[in-house]
Amino acid sequence: MSDTTAKTLNRSPAPRDSLPETHGDFGRTRVDLPVVLVAGPTGVGKTAFAVELARALGSEIVNADSMQVYRYMDIGTAKPTPRERSAVPHHLIDIVDPDEPFDAGDYLARARPVIATLHEAGKVPIVVGGTGLYLKVLTRGICAGAPGDPDVRRRLIEEERTLGLPALHERLRHVDPPLGARIHPNDRQRILRALEVFHHSGKPLSHWQRQHRFEDAPYRTFKIFLHRQRETLYARINDRVDAMMAKGFLDEVRKLLSMGCGPELKPMQSLGYRQLARHLRGEMSLDEAVREIRRDTRRYAKRQITWFRADPEYRWFDAADTRALVARIAREFTKILG
Fold it and tell me: Can you tell me the distance from the alpha carbon of 69 to that of 266, in angstroms, rounded to the nearest whole number?
């Protein structure tokens, strides 16, 4: 690699901008094949980069976006285009309906067999998405020991109706301060789950998570985090929201509502869908909804950056230089895999 290419690649402000060192002969046995993780904030360009990387490696893509698993939710979740999906096989997209429960445990149960199949075929899986929890449980396991109780969950849902979600989030901050500080006040599913565990077991969910310690590490991983300058990223987010609206995002939400997908469903509480559903119910103008989508998406991107910055295994690369980065990774894997 030339000095010029190296300087072009290493523009990250974080001191973690080189590929991990490789150890051993990955090509010797299929079980030693690595898993590449491609993460980054929403709007940074993960999908386009992953498609090019998968083509260069002759591999396939495994989705790690918690919204792209749902059918009928295409525009607002920024799913890969038909052209991108025809260029490279994609897995774990459009696998459940919006009214079906799906969480990190379900993702783990679906993703690991896909990765095993790809490894058996001698392929390096490219796992792509911005849902940090999905990537974490895939590579570190899941805290399965925390007990739950359907009766407690039903009582909490009723309390949410009468008291509101902010009151439940405030209760969580009181009974489980570490988790309450990490969980966003609008993250209904995680708030209810954390309170369910506490009220059933008498111990906060953060206690159960510390017991687990996420030490199940079945894969050799290459973790890549794509980033852009903040002003550039925010401009891309604003432009993407406008593009979604031009493609028919409002009609997509209108169709989902007509199918019976009400606001109580987890996917309908996500970015964009929540605001446009409120507009269609007459609670806010379309201009107000679009402004809120832009603002909340920028805030979400900031939270994603904070999440992944806490994992020192991720190497940060400027998403503006993805062509050079793809070429570099392809050369590295050519050496590794032979």
Answer: 12
What is the pLDDT averaged over residues 45-68? 96
Alpha carbons 59 and 88: distance in angstroms, whole number? 8
CB atoms within 10 A of CB 336: 18
- Helices 188-201 and 205-212 meet at what angle, rounded to 10? 90
Of 72, 83, 98, 64, the closest CA to residue 304 belongs to 64
d(CA 61, CA 92): 9
Structural domain boundaries, residue 172: 150-211
How far is the C-alpha of 103 from the C-alpha of 71, rounded, in Å? 15
Q: What is the CATH number of the domain that holds 194?
A: 1.10.20.140
Of the CA atoms within 13 Å of residue 132, those in its CB half-sphere come to 19
Same domain for 30 and 174, yes or no, is no
Model's pTM, two decimal places?
0.77
User: What pairing do the DSSP bridges indicate for beta strands 35-39 and 61-63?
Assistant: unpaired
